[in-house]
Amino acid sequence: MKQKLDINSWKRKEHFQHFIQMEEPFFGVTVPIDCTKAYTKAKELGISFFTYYLHKTLVAVNATEAFRYRIIENEVYLFDQIDASATILREDKTFGFSLMVYSEDLTEFAEATKTEITRIQNTPGLITLKFSINLIHFSAVPWINFTSYSHARSFTFPDSCPKISFGKMMDENGKKTMQMAVHVHHALVDGYDVGLFVSSFEALMNS
To answer: For the CA atoms of the chain, what is the radius of gyration?
Structure first.
C-alpha cells in the first residue's frame, strides 16, 4: 500500500523540485558499523550473519519515513512497507537479484530469506522476477574492506530506491566492524534522514 504526498504542501517542495532536475540526484556516505554484538547474537540464534544484518537494515529502513518515499511519474509516494532486492552469489560466481520480503519477526524473515536464496542459487539469469519499487537495493561485498562506494546507474532510468551495501567484516582485538555505504535520492532524502537511519541501524546492531 502507498499514499501520494501533496508536493505543494510538502515542507520539502523546493528541495524536491531542485534535486529532481539533476542528472545525478543520488548522494552517498560510507560509515563503519560495530557488529561485534550482532555477529554473536546471530550465531547464538543459528541465523546467518548476512540474514541478520539484512533484517536489521530493513527494520531501520521501515522506521525511517524518508527511506519509504519513492518517485512515480514525478509524484512522491509513501509506501507502508519496504522490502529488499539483495544480490545473491551462485556457485558459478554469477549473481541474481532476489526479493526479500520484510517481516518484523526475525525467525519468519530468516526462513523466507533462506528459501529465496535457494531459489536464486538454482535459477539462472540476473532478473528472475518482476520487481516493484518499494525496495532497497542491497548488496554485500565481503571480499573488500572499502572506504567509499559507487553504483552503476542509468541516468535515464527513473530510479529512487535507496542502495545499501556492506563490505568485508574486520576483526581487531575482538571488535568486529564492517563498512556500510548508503546511497539515496536527494529529492527525497537529506543528510539528516540518513543520520536517523544510521543511528537506528547502529542501535539495532548493538541491542
So the answer is: 17
